[in-house]
Amino acid sequence: MKRHRVVALPRGHYNWWTMRSLSPRPRRRVTFYTAGCRLNQAETAILIDRFCAKGYEPVPFGAPTDILVINSCAVTEQAEADCRRVVRQTLRHSPQAFVAVIGCYAQTGVHALQNLPGIDLIVGHQYKLQLPEHLDALAAIEKQSTPSVVHTRRIEHQEFVVDGTGAYSTTRANVKIQDGCQFMCAFCLIPFARGRERSRALDDIIREATALAERGHRELVLTGVNIGQYCTGQADLLSVIRRLETIPGIERIRISSIEPTTIPDGLFEHMASSSKVCRHLHVPLQSGDDRILKAMNRRYTVRDYQREIERAVSLIPDLCVGTDILVGFPGEGEQEFKNSVAAAHDLPFAYVHVFPYSKRPGTAAARLSETVSSSVIKHRSRELNHLSRQKRQAFYRRCLGQRVSVLFETQQTTGLWVGFTDHYVRVGVVSSANLANTIHEVIVTGIMEEMVLGELVATGHPQEAAHRASIERVVSAI
Ligand code: SF4
């Protein structure tokens, strides 16, 4: 067996690029666990691509592996607990697996992670996408008595580029266009975890998007922490969208989530007229009570929010509007919660994502005293989730009898092919054909709890076979 020279990595922070690769290594299996948001998913996809390029063999999470990469989240206590669980779970079936924790928890919870048995490397946000190079710098990828740490408190905030192209086994591909946030909402750890806002160079976004289109992806989801703040030179979010629309093969561009105060001028008008921009807006409301919004350090009132959404709905036919509401923020009494329920009820939401408040040390809200008990938070979350289901069903009912365009993704075990409309309605149809990654017209004939049912009214796109072959090649390479 080939032996490697061992370089002892100092405990504590170090500069990874002073290390160098000392010898070639055998092909190693690597598995990924991604917690949290779509931005983390986009970053994991980039890492999969970069590990593949270096000859590593990606294996599904849960399979025996040589390396586990946890792209962690710190948004709730639960997310941190999940990270610890995943380490234990993987070491049970792969006791020699080298465990690297990267991402938000690695950035904010480095000391807690250092004391967690089984972790070998902790990489904060500044250097996480260079993880393969950190591993190159090690003399041997093997269990460490104490974890090495690659971490800086300060995260650069210049315009950035991303090496590589996200590797996705899914039909939709995320594209990271922005990172960081400095809005300092009182409940949110993200400004501490990901640093100040910064945008990705427009040409680099176009480069990755073009490569994704060549791999067969037809839909791109623009992701970031606060993408409405996108700004490079003269380019804003709308400029990014206009450039993406010119890429051959890209048929849908979806905006993941956008803060209500950051929507660029002209976005709604463009969404209304474009054949490629999905009629889907996810705009976090967080609370339907002005006093709580102020305490959260949000930058709008309920009325401001309502005006913006009403303008969008009036301009964009069949628009799907979704939102986030945080339940149990300190000081949220019965009346404040009722105001949130009323806002969720009255605003034209197709769905509401409900987030139970979780105290995050270091945030402004963590210092507030009027806390809400966990049983009340649970009860309120249930009520809002129930309302969200009703809103979704009402949105689905509006589709009955309509002709919709569906990008199909997967076939369920039931044989039903499932995909999404551009306005984010999940649609299932029965078909013996392979519909994966093809767009078809469908008449909606019925609704179920989590999707609508329909019948195909048209056959595939002329480029269908080529697209399918191309995405199959990518999927088999992952
Ligand atoms: S806008 Fe507020 S909630 Fe969103 S990431 Fe920034 S600080 Fe967090």
Key phrases:
single chain; 478 residues; alpha/beta; Rossmann fold; Transcription Regulator spoIIAA; OB fold (Dihydrolipoamide Acetyltransferase, E2P); 3 domains; six-stranded parallel beta sheet; five-stranded mixed beta barrel; 14 helices; 20% strand; globular; disordered N terminus; disordered C terminus; binds iron/sulfur cluster
CATH superfamily membership of the largest domain: Response regulator
As a percent range, the share of helical residues equals 25-40%
Question: Roughly how many Å is the radius of gyration?
Answer: 23 Å
Supply the CATH architecture of the largest domain. 3-Layer(aba) Sandwich
Mean pLDDT: 89
Class from secondary-structure proportions:
alpha/beta
Counted beta strands:
19
Largest sheet: 6 strands, parallel
**What is the CATH topology classification name of the largest domain?**
Rossmann fold
Q: List the ligand species.
A: iron/sulfur cluster
Strand content: 15-25%
What top-tier CATH class of the largest domain fits best?
Alpha Beta
Structural shape: globular
Number of domains: 3
Distance between the termini: 28 Å
Instruction: Record the strand order, biggest sheet.
Output: 2-1-3-4-5-6
Annotation field: number of helices: 14
Uncertain segments are 1-24, 460-478
Entry summary:
The protein is an alpha/beta fold and 478 residues long.
Describe this structure in words.
By secondary structure, this protein is an alpha/beta fold. The protein is built from 14 helices and 19 strands. It has helices at 38-53, 77-93, 104-108, 110-114, 131-137, 190-194, 202-214, 237-245, 267-273, 290-295, 302-315, 334-346, 374-399, 464-477; strands at residues 29-34, 57-58, 67-72, 98-103, 121-123, 148-150, 172-176, 178-179, 198-199, 219-223, 252-255, 280-282, 320-327, 351-356, 403-411, 416-421, 426-430, 439-447, 452-456. The strands form five sheets. Strands 2-1-3-4-5-6 form a six-stranded parallel sheet, with helices on both faces. A five-stranded mixed β-barrel has the order 15-16-17-19-18. Strands 7-10-11 form a three-stranded parallel sheet. The model is unreliable at 1-24 and 460-478 (pLDDT under 50). Bound molecules: iron/sulfur cluster (SF4). Iron/sulfur cluster (SF4) binds next to helix 6.
